[in-house]
């Protein structure tokens, strides 16, 4: 990808590298800061409204004024700009902004023709391009990740929480689920006129819609307090001609459903009770005959998410295995054969085939702000697109190139609440996710999880001098659910989806707690060398103790499901 470099009041801005180069140093910008600055450069000395900025940089997402202000403030700081006496970004009250810096494209490759005729310059130019070529070859030999080239645009801007977005094969309709003040409703939108109407009733949750190959009908899961059903809706123009229930599932089974390629069968996931794992089934729509598919043994929640191959009756299944790694399988619907593909020790979700069916597309590691493509062996990974918003499960659009998903903005800040003043002050307010704060027992430090370094890491905030520092160097992509100081404030425990980490604050050493490979909940410290947490025993949550010194696990009083001891350090 050709880099675009702007010269801004003597500062060089690389749009691709997302850097500002000053006379003696270079700084890296956050993704959103770089996108805003690039838009400013392309529209220098023009009035830019907040709405225009949101449409073109945030792509129409619903964002607060504080989110925009935060990015502008950070960009001003990076440029060394003074908001009161600005030489870069001028605020236009009640309108937006104007980029008033002296801005021009910097094109170092455009040189005088007279210089090109000099032998000494030609030799230097040859060496320059050889160095560039060598650098490129070294780079390509060490990484397969490429700069994403795709563009994201918003298809809906409803007030509800939207999910399960699917475009009909003929491209005429967009179906999606929308939760707003109650149940999750199934919405149909005409892509040409923008007209929308509701397919499901107001008394239940509708999800996982899938279209027939001829776009005349779609099926979806329907749940309320008394029923679980798979429904089929037939369309006539822009109206519903009829609706029917084609399967009654166990109440509380929130699975997924899809047609096979000739629409003669449906594949669906369901569970017998909320305590049982999800399993995969196939049902013939003509005879009503259904059978359980040959599939890997289910663990934890089981086999909820699957994807049908673009041209073949094969399923891609992504599910946790016995070691709690995320495993991928290929299921042949005709031969009823399950084939293991690969596994990854990452918190990733909801794999689908690419448009050719020879690769896998998956949401990136938590917090799911990228789409990643890899081959069927889990290798040759590259990013398709990298965003600053969350990405929900993805589906293919029937144009052999594009994908559709529901996206949302996520930016958690950490605030201190003063009880006497009845007010709060943000003490950690980066433009990324900051979460799971815990204050040490001596009230001197605040520990939290942040993605300020692009991956989830542990940071410490010093209450006395308001400084912060990163203390972990995690190389995995786990999703953390809890973080707690030990009673002596020397260690931190981190609860993951499957497992617990211990982080020594002084040495920064990390190790995994040796507990059974299953979901743990309710983590707390019993004393300086003992962790308490709950594991499932015979279908019930039971409290266990883990000794850091002996690495032994003890099941304590079975009358307790969760505990959190109180302690005071003198």
Automatic annotation (TrEMBL):
The keyword DNA-binding applies. InterPro entries: 6-blade_b-propeller_TolB-like, OmpR/PhoB-type_DNA-bd, Sig_transdc_resp-reg_C-effctor, WH-like_DNA-bd_sf. Residues 3-101 bind DNA. Transmembrane segments: none annotated. Keywords: DNA-binding. Residues 3-101 form the OmpR/PhoB-type domain. It holds the Pfam family Trans_reg_C. SMART domains: Trans_reg_C. This is OmpR/PhoB-type domain-containing protein. It comes from Pseudoalteromonas aurantia. The lineage of its organism: Bacteria, Pseudomonadati, Pseudomonadota, Gammaproteobacteria, Alteromonadales.
């Amino acid at each position: 990808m050709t880099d675009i470099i702007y010269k801004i009041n003597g500062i060089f801005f690389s749009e691709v590298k997302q850097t500002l180069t000053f006379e003696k140093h270079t700084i890296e910008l956050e993704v959103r800061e770089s996108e805003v600055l690039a838009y400013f450069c392309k529209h220098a000395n023009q009035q830019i409204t907040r709405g225009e900025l949101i449409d073109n940089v945030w792509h129409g997402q619903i964002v607060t004024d504080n989110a925009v202000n935060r990015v502008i403030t950070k960009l001003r700081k990076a440029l060394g700009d003074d908001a009161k006496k600005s030489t870069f970004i001028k605020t236009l009250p009640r309108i937006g902004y104007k980029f008033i810096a002296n801005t021009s494209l910097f094109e170092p490759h455009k040189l005088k023709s007279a210089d090109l005729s000099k032998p000494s310059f030609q030799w230097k130019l040859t060496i320059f391009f050889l160095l560039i070529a060598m650098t490129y070859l070294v780079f390509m030999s060490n990484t397969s990740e490429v700069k994403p080239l795709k563009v994201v645009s918003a298809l809906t801007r409803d007030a509800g929480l939207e999910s399960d977005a699917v475009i009909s094969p003929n491209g005429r309709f967009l179906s999606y689920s929308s939760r707003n003040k109650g149940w999750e409703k199934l919405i149909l939108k005409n892509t040409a006129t923008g007209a929308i109407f509701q397919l499901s009733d107001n008394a239940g949750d509708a999800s996982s819609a899938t279209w027939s190959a001829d776009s005349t009908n779609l099926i979806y899961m329907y749940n309320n307090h008394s029923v679980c059903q798979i429904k089929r809706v037939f369309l006539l123009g822009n109206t519903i001609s009829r609706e029917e229930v084609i399967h009654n599932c166990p109440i509380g089974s929130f699975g997924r459903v899809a047609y096979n390629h000739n629409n003669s069968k449906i594949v669906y996931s369901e569970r017998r009770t909320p305590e049982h794992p999800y399993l995969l089934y196939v049902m013939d729509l003509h005879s009503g005959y259904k059978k359980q598919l040959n599939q890997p043994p289910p663990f934890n929640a089981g086999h909820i998410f699957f994807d049908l191959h673009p041209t073949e009756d094969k399923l891609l299944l992504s599910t946790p295995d016995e070691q709690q790694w995320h495993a991928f399988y290929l299921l042949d619907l005709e031969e009823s054969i399950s084939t293991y593909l690969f596994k990854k020790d990452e918190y990733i979700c909801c794999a689908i085939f690419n448009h050719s069916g020879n690769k896998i597309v998956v949401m990136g590691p938590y917090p799911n702000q990228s789409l990643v493509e890899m081959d069927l062996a889990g290798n040759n990974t590259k990013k398709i697109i990298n965003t600053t918003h969350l990405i929900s499960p993805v589906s293919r659009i029937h144009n052999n190139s594009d994908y559709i998903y529901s996206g949302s903005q996520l930016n958690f800040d950490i605030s201190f609440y003063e009880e006497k003043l009845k007010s709060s002050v943000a003490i950690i307010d980066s433009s990324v996710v900051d979460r799971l704060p815990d204050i040490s027992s001596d009230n001197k430090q605040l520990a939290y999880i942040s993605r300020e370094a692009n991956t989830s890491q542990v940071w410490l905030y010093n209450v006395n001098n308001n400084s912060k520092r990163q203390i972990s160097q995690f190389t995995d992509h786990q999703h953390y659910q809890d973080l707690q100081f030990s009673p002596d404030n020397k260690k931190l425990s981190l609860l993951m989806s499957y497992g617990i980490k211990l982080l020594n604050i002084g040495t920064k050493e990390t190790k995994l707690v040796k507990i059974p490979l299953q979901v743990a909940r309710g983590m707390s410290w019993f004393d300086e060398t003992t962790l308490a947490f709950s594991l499932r025993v015979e279908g019930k949550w039971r409290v266990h103790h883990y000794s850091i010194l002996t690495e032994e696990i003890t099941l304590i009083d079975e009358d307790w499901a969760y505990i959190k001891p109180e302690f005071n350090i003198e």
